[in-house]
Amino acid sequence: MQLLPTALRERLARTHFASQAIADKADLSAFGEKPTPRLILGLLILALSFLLGWPAVAACGIAAVYFEEPLVLVVGGPGIYGFSWLLWAVSVYLLGKESYTYGRVFLRWAVRRMLE
């Protein structure tokens, strides 16, 4: 089963990135290495930032209605949402070049698999 139309596959296969991925027989061998503690911490903080984003703002809204105190949402919502962005920035710093490397390995493998 082909995921992409033939014309799109042919055009994608002509790109330097795709042709290199196919020529190098890109695989996921880099994922066999043990991740560094910094990478694990960065991923955990990234997950926490997503959990504190809109779900926490929605929880503030529900709490504001339940307790009949609109300030819970007015103050807490933007505060928690801003804090989630701060956590996201910290996670991006911690993940750094290592996450880019893993992302590139995965993308090369995925492109090769789609085109072969």
List the SSEs and their pairings:
Elements: H1 6-13, H2 16-23, H3 37-51, H4 54-67, H5 71-115
Written overview of the protein:
The protein is mainly alpha-helical and 116 residues long. The chain has one domain (6-115). The chain has helices spanning 6-13, 16-23, 37-51, 54-67, 71-115. Helix 3 (37-51) packs across helix 5. The longest helix has 45 residues, at 71-115.
Helix segment count? 5
Strand content: under 5%
User: How many domains?
Assistant: 1
> What are the low-pLDDT stretches, counting only 5+ consecutive residues below 50?
none
Short description:
This protein is mainly α and 116 residues long. Helix content is 78%, strand content 0%. The N and C termini lie close together (11 Å).
Q: Can you tag this structure with a few keywords?
A:
116 residues, mainly alpha
